[in-house]
Every structure is written in structure tokens, then in C-alpha cells.
Amino acid sequence: CSRWEEEKNEDGVKWMQLEHRGPYFVPPYEPLPKDVHFYYDGKPLKLSLATEEVATFYAKMLDHEYTTKEIFQNNFFHDWRKEMTSEEQEIIKDLDKCDFGEIHKYFVDKNEARKALPKEEKQKLKEEADKIQEEYGYCILDGHREKIGNFKTEPPGLFRGRGEHPKMGMLKKRIMPEDVIINCSKDSKIPKPPEGHKWKEVRFDNTVTWLASWTENIQNTLKYIMLNPSSKLKGEKDWQKYEVARRLKDVVHTIRAQYRKDWKSKEIKKRQRAVALYFIDKLALRAGNEKEEGETADTVGCCSLRVEHIQLHPQLDGQEHVVEFDFLGKDSIRYYNKVSVEKPVFKNLQLFMKNKDPTDDLFDHLNTTFLNKHLQHLMDGLTAKVFRTYNASITLQEQLKALTNPEDNIAGKLLSYNRANRAVAILCNHQRSIPKTFAKSMQVLQEKIDAKKKQVEEAQEEVKKAEDEFKDTKDAKAEANVEKKKKLLKRLEEQLAKMNIQATDKEENKQIALGTSKLNYLDPRITVAWCKKFGIPIERIYNKTQREKFAWAIDMTGEDFEF
DNA sequence: CCTGAAGACTCAGAAATATAAGT
DNA sequence: TACTTATATTTCTGAGTCTTCAG
């Protein structure tokens, strides 16, 4: 436990000692073999090195749907031309006349060749990767050797945003040492830049947690090299996050009473704030910062909802005051929900929407800064996102309480856990695309279940037969046989039950992503306590990485922990 | 002091890779 | 046992939230 209980640093100081090797730079571009050609207008054309490299980025993505989109093609072609020599610019004027087919095939083949490599060769590659990990993947922070999260620079390539991103296809440039700022402690061994290069800057800022940073050229924002979630620094922050959420538990009732009162406020701004907060609390919506138009995909959160994103139904499917939400949230994941809301909320929404265009802001007097200022005033450390953490964790705790049957076997209890986890994922709208092999693997499972059912039936008959025989003969051998057959039947029935559970779980899970809530929203202490209480080995819920990340919770939690 | 931009950090699903299960 | 396929884990980096800074 001691590791989590070392003394705290003062005011914003994150470490006293930080030593590392700097980022690992991706290997330089390898030119194409002579017999792999690019064709323009049907004729082979030898490209300059820089032009060729960018061409390979496009060629590699050729069978991806992305490359068929006009925005992608235009952005790519625009940026590609900038890399060309003036001679090349003279010739290559039309993307449609470019043939990347041979280059594409070269990379597909190369990939397959790599997969087909003999075992020893693969082993060798792995050892090389491990060596790099060993050398660059760790740092020393305040005397502890800590794992780094992302120690490699991002390779150059074509930008792929999520959803309808206006910058898709743009060229993401190669990161050079000259772009990189190193952060470490003054008295540490300062990382050496690669031969013949120098760092952009070396600084000694112990009020931040990053080891290195650079500015990315697509959005002009900073990227960082930071520690792995298993590190003490990240673990403590995570713990702190859940402690804030637990404090919200104590005041949430007051806050709810407050926003209900504010629904009737004379100030429109307060009313909007109160309705937005109701959504954030009840539906676990994100805050919704405003975003710069044209720079990113068009997505929204609570405060940035527009009139077009909701529809009001005084009556719907036997419910009153129904709000129908339909918008794209983070990562362009669709949020669709029909919710019966309290009457004053409904009335307020009607008011907010009056005389507005579909593209106008629903909460036109509200932004996240104003909302968060209010929340800060209600509780120290409270911001909009704390509601998501709080509601997620409290839901897990409640669902576990409601769903766990102490009589169940481990598989049954695990199903209950997954269902509780799933309830949270649904609340937070964590979705995934249905796995490509889903239908097939479901069918395979169903066939197995049917086969097992048959076996169970057969076994039942066998038992009956054995029992009849015993009734006739009354001999010990026949009696033993009855026992044997019964045992077999029981085993088969258990197998069948397990398969049925598996099928249910799989079906319920096909479009839901459990990982994000498990990793970021659910206080791990709830899970640890549940495992202890019901005798479930923690490895059945958390894999190795997750156990490392949640080491702080596994260390300190007893079975009576309450969120 | 206010405001918008920059900075720092958390959270997000897809894709790549490793491992287990099936044949 | 060797190969193939399904599943689990890990990596990747984009997309949010919230804080801090500069003019």
C-alpha cells in the first residue's frame, strides 16, 4: 500500500525527478524497389523520394472506404502536390490519372510475407521490439521506474479523422527531433537527440507530467508523450477523480433540488443552465464545448445542442413530454434516445426553441464555462464531466446489488457483472460497430447449443433406462450405473447452461463497447469489493493491464467498500 | 479584469497484434 | 501436432474536457 501513500507535493508540482531517453523515432522512409511503378495517365513515372513517400501513404489505404470520398481525395491531392518537384507538378495534375495499383499490391504482398515468416524470424523481430521497449519505454520518476504510455513518435501518413472530418486525407508530417520539446529534470541524464540532430528545446518543468511534446501539423495542436496508466502519477489522479465523484454523491440531492427550482427562474440564462444540467445528470451527456467551425467534424454535446437535434412530443407511445434526441456526439457516434422528461423541462424546451431556426443553438445563453463556474460554486472540484463518472459508478454499484444472485455459479455471477457493466455503457452511449464476424460466430454458437441439447436429451433417456434396469434387477451394478448416468447428465446440463449464458451475453453485447466505461468511468473499488464479497477471482474481470492500472484499488479495497 | 487561444490532460473506438480454441 | 480461425489484448492517435496564459 505504501506506494500510494507517499507524501504529496505542494501546489502543482508533479515530480522532483524525471529521467528518460526521449521519444523513439519511427524508421526513415524506405524507397520502393525498382520494379514497383507508379503510373500516370497509363505511363510509368519515376517519382522523387518525397513525392513517392506520400504516394505510398495513399496507396496503402486504397481498399479503405476513406479514399473514395471527395474531401479525402482533394485534401490528399492538394498536400501531395506541395511535396512534388516543379517537374512533377507540371505532369501530375489529375488524381484520376494516377495509378497506385502496383504500389498497393506491393504493400499487400509485403504484409502477407511478414505474416508467413518462419517462427524464428518472427521471434527475432519480437526480440528487437522488446529491446526498443526496454530502452525507450520506461522512465525514472521520483526514484520509481515507470512505464511510458506512448514512447514512439507518430509515423507520417494521411490524417483520418472520425466521421465527416473536413481535414481527412491531409498529409500528417514526419516528426523530427527538431520539432520535439524534451521535459526532464535538470540534474538527470538529458536524452541525446539522434545522430546529427538536435531537440527543439529542453525544458525542466515539474508542474506538468509530460516527457516530450511536439506540435502536430493538421490541427496545430500539441501532442504529448506521457506515462502509462499503471504509473503512480496516473493512478493517483484516477483515484482522485473517483473521490471527487464520491463527494458529489453527498450533495447531488441538493443540486437536483436546486436545478428544479431554477427551471422557474426569471433569468433565461439560469433556466437554460438548469435544463442543461438536468440532461447532463439524467442522460449522462457530455458538457459540449463550442468548436471552431470547419476545423473538425460537426458533433455536439449538451451545451452545444442545436434546435435540429431534438424533437418534442407532448404524447408518444403512451408517455407524456417526450424529448427525442438525435445528434452526433464525440467521435461522431450517434446519440438517439426518446426520453420522458418532467413537465417544466418540456415547457422550457418549447420556450427555448421558439422562433429559432433548426441550426440555432438550443441553449443560446449558455456555454460550458458558465455552467462549470456554477458547478464549482456548488461543490469544490465539480465540473460537468463528474456527473458522468458519478452516475456511471453509482449505476454499477446499484446494478450489481440488484442483479447478483449469491446462489449462482461463477459464470452466472460474471453474466450479472457484464449486465451491470452494460447498463453503464448504455447510459454513457458507448457503442462499437458490430464485429464483422458476429453473425457467423453467433450461428456457430447456436449450432453448438443445439447439439448439446440433443446430448442432454439422450442422457436423460439413458438415465431413465438405467433406472428401469435397476428397478428390475435391484443389483448393485445397476445402481452404480444409474449414478454414473446421472452424473453425466448433470455435467451436460451445466455445459448447456454455460453456453446459453455465453450466447445471451454475446447477443446483448454486440453493439455495445464495455471497455471505455470499465477503464474510465467505473470506480474500480466497486468491482474489487464485489469480487471479494462473492469470491470471484479478480482476473476474471480485469486482465493484466487493467490490474496494473487499478493496482491502487486492488491494494486498498475491502469487500465492504461503498462508493 | 476579461476573453479567446494555447496547453494539458482524460476519454474514445478502430485497427493491429497476440493468444486461445478448434480441426 | 500443425495449421486455421476466433477471441482477447494492446496499440494507436483522434476527440473531447477543463485549466491556464497572454494580450
Automatic annotation (TrEMBL):
Gene Ontology CC terms, in alphabetical order: chromosome; mitochondrial nucleoid; nucleus
SMART domains assigned: TOPEUc
Coiled coil regions in record: 442-509
InterPro entries on file: DNA_brk_join_enz, DNA_topo_DNA_db_N_dom1, DNA_topo_DNA_db_N_dom2, TopoI, TopoI_C_dom, TopoI_cat_a-hlx-sub_euk, TopoI_cat_a/b-sub_euk, TopoI_cat_euk
Catalysed reactions, semicolon-separated: ATP-independent breakage of single-stranded DNA, followed by passage and rejoining
DNA-binding keyword on record: yes
EC number in record: 5.6.2.1
Broad class of enzyme this protein falls into: isomerase
Entries under PROSITE patterns matching the protein: TOPO_IB_1, TOPO_IB_2
Pfam family, one: Topoisom_I
Keywords, ordered alphabetically: Coiled coil, DNA-binding, Isomerase, Topoisomerase
Keyword Isomerase in record: yes
Official protein name in the record: DNA topoisomerase I
Gene of this entry: Top1mt
